[in-house]
Design brief:
It is a single chain. A three-stranded antiparallel beta sheet has the order 1-3-2. It has a three-stranded antiparallel beta sheet with strand order 4-6-9. A three-stranded antiparallel beta sheet has the order 5-8-7. The protein is of the alpha+beta class and 299 residues long. β7 and β8 form a beta hairpin. It has ten helices and nine strands. The two termini are 14 Å apart. α5 runs parallel beside α8. The radius of gyration is 20 Å and the shape is globular. The protein has two domains: 114 residues, RNA 2'-phosphotransferase, Tpt1/KptA family, N-terminal domain (Arc Repressor Mutant, subunit A, Orthogonal Bundle); 116 residues, Alpha-Beta Barrel (ADP-ribosylation fold), CATH 3.20.170.
């Protein structure tokens, strides 16, 4: 964390070059991200937490619950770490508001979330299994094990999302988002490159072509990312599984975190939270944690 420019994920602040204050290793970041995904997308009750209809959970209660269940291994956890993860998440998967945090997409539990519906691109994309192409182009897109259909901003974003899945390389479908909205379909911005919708009828679906790939390449280059390098790295990640003693070098997309992905130690503990369990002692708080309420506008 840079005192002047906030949180960052690198060896030094990308703005001023300052080394900043160390908060988490890449392994700790990955571990916290998986636990947060489980809580905020799938099973808050396993951690004794209550979620409102917009998907928000109290940060302080979540920190207390994680520390109680993980014991010494998460003794270091503070609200500062949650906020730092959220603010530096490359895909914008989380949102902090008034000392509460939520995942903006990927839920397997029913919620009534309000997300922005402006600035939706004319085209969006969806990675499909080759065996399902015929049915999708006839029947449309519907949620599977999630409550919403997830669409990607560019061809490359869809490819990146699809390549993580088991099975053959995905075939990318183009969604005529502009026409879909003109016909009353509500599409929401859920992340920097992710959009959610209840369903997409087949009338608005077609196969992506070279024009879509070229448009995607241009946007990726504008982001400062080489699209060819992204594809190579994604294949490399799939072919290599880190060992127990190896640092996890990236922030893998945790859309598919399920209860089984968390160890027994993550889930063990009493089912019922007491008021004492959910209180964080003043000695456990840093100066930054205690200033969160005043800095809500910055978060």
């Amino acid at each position: 964390m840079c005192n002047e420019h906030g949180y960052f994920r690198s060896e030094e602040c990308p703005i001023c070059g300052d080394e900043g204050k160390f908060l988490m290793s890449s392994y700790e970041l990955e571990s916290l991200g998986r636990i947060m995904a489980g809580i905020l997308r799938h099973f808050p009750e396993k951690f004794g937490l209550q979620m409102d209809e917009e998907g928000f959970v109290d940060i302080y209660r979540m920190v207390s619950s994680i520390k109680r269940k993980r014991g010494d291994r998460m003794r270091w956890l503070r609200p500062t770490h949650i906020i730092g993860l959220v603010e530096t998440d490359p895909k914008g998967r989380y949102q902090v508001e008034n000392n509460h945090v939520r995942a903006t997409y990927g839920h397997s539990i029913d919620l009534s979330m309000s997300l922005p519906t402006d600035h939706i691109p004319e085209r969006l994309y969806y990675p499909a299994d080759p065996d399902s192409i015929e049915s999708l182009t006839k029947e449309g897109l519907h949620p599977g094990d999630r409550t919403m259909v997830h669409l990607s901003k560019t061809w490359n974003d869809a490819y990146e999302a699809g390549i993580h899945r088991e099975g053959p390389e995905p075939i990318i479908l183009r969604i005529d988002a502009e026409e879909a909205q003109n016909n009353g379909i509500i599409i929401q911005r859920a992340g920097k490159t992710v959009f959610t919708v209840e369903e997409i009828p087949a009338d608005f679906i077609s196969l992506a072509d070279e024009e879509d790939i070229e448009l995607s390449r241009k946007e990726m280059l504008e982001r400062g990312v080489d699209p060819d390098q992204v594809e190579e790295e994604e294949v490399e990640e799939i072919d290599h599984i880190p060992g127990d003693d190896e640092e996890i070098a990236g922030d893998e997309d945790d859309d598919d975190v399920e209860e089984d992905d968390l160890s027994d130690d993550d889930l063990e503990g009493e089912d019922d939270e007491t008021d004492e369990d959910l209180n964080i002692e003043d000695d456990d708080m840093t100066d930054e944690d205690l200033d969160i309420e005043d800095d809500d506008d910055d978060n």
